[in-house]
Amino acid sequence: MVEEAWRRQDEPACSIERSLQVLGERWTLLVLREVFAGRHRFSEIRASLGLAPNLLSDRLKTLVEAGVLETRGYQEPGSRPRESYHLTESGRELRLVLGALQQWGDRHRPRPGGPTVLRRTADGDKPVHVAFHDDEGNQVPATDVAFVWNPVAAGLGQ
């Protein structure tokens, strides 16, 4: 019965799987890292990542189609019109995802010299950490967080 409910849907029921349809390619999060760092032009992103143009084009197209990035036209004097890439609200929310990946990497895949980028408050240079919080704003240890099946969303109940 559970299998039947999953098959009736046009897209995966799992939010993680749906997210990975957009974000799951190796280069995608690195492209987003570059946009967060202020690199908005194709040439800037490509130069920073050393990524083949066809792969970068594909990643940018996917992110634009998914509403994570939006394009804005610009034109350098004497050059043809081009597009730059900017985060949408959906894209800006991925800062948390990148921060969580960075935090995990700092802890479990550390470099001998320490992290190359630190997470700090914008105004006070205080260290910040990615964490779970309840509706009242209290931090909840990750070990106390459960991912609970929702049969209603899966079409199995009311």
Features:
mainly alpha; Arc Repressor Mutant, subunit A; 7 helices; 42% helix; HTH_HxlR; DNA-binding; transcription
Question: What's the gist of this structure?
Answer:
Keywords: DNA-binding, Transcription, Transcription regulation. By secondary structure, the protein is mainly α. About 40% of the residues lie in helices and about 10% in strands.
- Give the amount of beta strand, in percent: 5-15%
| CATH architecture designation | Orthogonal Bundle
Strand order of the largest sheet: 1-2
| Major beta sheet summary | 2 strands, antiparallel
> How many independent structural domains?
1
The helical percent reads 40-55%
Order of helices and strands: HHHHHEEHHEE
Given helix and strand content, the structural type is mainly alpha
| Name of the level-1 CATH class | Mainly Alpha
CATH topology value = Arc Repressor Mutant, subunit A
Number of strands: 4
CATH level-four homologous superfamily name: Winged helix-like DNA-binding domain superfamily/Winged helix DNA-binding domain
State the shape: globular
Number of helices: 7
What does this structure look like?
With 158 residues, the chain is mainly alpha-helical. The chain has one domain (2-144): Arc Repressor Mutant, subunit A. It contains seven helices and four strands; from the N terminus they run αααααββααββ. The protein has helices at 2-8, 15-23, 26-36, 42-49, 53-65, 89-92, 95-108; strands at residues 69-74, 82-87, 132-133, 139-140. The strands form two sheets. Strands 1-2 form a two-stranded antiparallel ribbon. Strands 3-4 form a two-stranded antiparallel sheet. Strand 1 and strand 2 (82-87) form a beta hairpin. The longest helix is centred in the middle third of the chain and has 14 residues, at 95-108. The protein starts with a helix and ends in an 18-residue tail after the last strand. Residues 1-8 have low confidence and may be disordered. InterPro entries: HTH_HxlR (IPR002577), WH-like_DNA-bd_sf (IPR036388), WH_DNA-bd_sf (IPR036390). Keywords: DNA-binding, Transcription, Transcription regulation. Residues 14-113 form the HTH hxlR-type domain. GO terms for molecular function: DNA binding. It holds the Pfam family HxlR.
